Amino acid sequence: MSKKVRALLAFWAFFISLSAQAGVSEKVLSPAAVEKAIEPRRLFLFVGINSFADGQYPALEFPQKDVDDFQNFIQSHNATDQDYVITLKGQEATLARVTEALDEIERRNLSERDMVFVYLSTHGTLDFSSTRQMERYAVVYDTTFKQTRDNGLSIAWLENRLRRLRSQRKALILALCHSGSGKSALPSAIHDELKSMKGHVQSKPLHEASSAMMVLSASSWGEPARENRVLRNDVYTHFLLKGLQKNDANLDGAVSLFEAHEYARSMTYDFTRGSQTPTALVNLKGMDPLILKGKVEQVGFPLIFADSEVWRNLSLKINGRLKGSLWQPRQAEEGHVRVALLDPEHPDQPLMDHYMYLEPHQSYSVTSLLARKSTWLVQVILGQIPVDLGVDAPSLRQATSLGLGVSLQAILATPFTASIEYHRLSEHSKKTVDYDVSDLTYNADLIKAGIGFSTYWMPRLLMDTSLSLEYLTIERQIGNESYDQRRQNLRIIYPAIACELRAINLVGSWFAGLGAVVYPLRTKVVAWDERRDALRPITGRVTLGTTL
Predict the structure, then answer these.
(1) Do 158 and 54 share a structural domain?
(2) Which domain holds residue 62?
(3) Does residue 24 lie within any of the structural domains?
(4) Does 404 share its domain with 332?
(5) Which of 40, 187, 229, 413 could bridge 113 with an S-S bond, Cβ 3.0-4.6 Å?
(6) How far apart are CA 370 and CA 352, in angstroms?
(7) Residue 225 in contact with residue 271, Cβ under 8 Å?
(8) SS3 at position 200
(9) Does 431 have pLDDT greater than 50?
């Protein structure tokens, strides 16, 4: 073998050995490592500024401490090595640095399941846009008092930046205000403009609601946001952290941001004697996904909350039992329940009184409840339908049969209900007719429409009564060739009164009922001929159904 060939073979052997070593050195990720790589991240931006480059903004005492306290809480609860935290305090918190921080959070936000949390504790201010519209700004370190529009942090711009993120779990907390007092500073031109508006601007909402973002504010529009030396914090921030520590309103084992805010809102209002009312704009669809403490360990109660300050004084009743005012979210029983909202000044005129199905671990706003016009029930009825048309045979006079039916029942905006029902019965048997044993076939169709009234006896026991009209057609066919009237038909309309006791929420939204149907006039309207017996005046009824 020539030296050239030997050298070529040696080269290929060396190359193959390197490839084999590279293949051996490849690492296969474990399922745990893969899960960790794709698990949701928590991305935080904290901004707190005590003093400002422009001396016309008065110094604040506690924004930087607010940031430190919030960071300490985050690091102590639910922390993972996937957390990413950006903190900008004092001179670091310039407009350029805040913008860079938002860019970095957007770059790291790779999943809809990530949680994005932005917290600002600073001054708030207002300025005019190019179209003379009032715009809200957060004051950063390098914001100038007379050029806010050029170097202030626009709240509208900030909200738009957050909305475009992939995450469907976002929160913006504004520990600032735009009232001209407390944690805000307004130029004299803005003060004059606000006065000329004669209070109209005070009724504007602070933010627009977003289905993917929760916006929490330390105060309502026109109210101050305050610091307090006794609390050594922004007042709202202090109680928000307290709420995160303990306010598990639905008792599921975890504390969500919304639960903490509702606690902070009521505590801040009481502490400031009504001068500061924190606000929240949320569009909760189900449970609040922003869990900051603990983990969901069990299915929580449904929560009903006031999503507007105008609903706060309403009283809530569930199945006739008073739960209290909606000054704070209230627990409700799960399942098919009767929900009433009462104005204390007009308790005899409920704002709503609905039967509806409340799912566990879900939150329901007053607005969403008021939008519900009705709830539908789908039922299967196993009803005892007598079809005795009354021939001479004594055995046939006692004949009864089971019918299978389907009902749609609409629960209206009161305890009243409306329903439509259909039954079909087919029975084949051998009977004695004129002393001969004959095949006897019955086919019956029943269409029923009625109105009813429902009331709770116990949390899971419902009494349903109804008045209806029934249209019944019965066809009887006798298999005896010698019988003159081998086929007979009956069509009648008559009223019926039903009374049923239902056990609800057996499994999820399923219910079952047992009752009776009384026909006060059926014995009179059935007058086929003198020898025929009328249909029986009472039957039994069994139902099984679910709520849509």
Answers:
(1) yes
(2) 40-225+277-283
(3) no
(4) no
(5) 40
(6) 7
(7) no
(8) helix
(9) yes
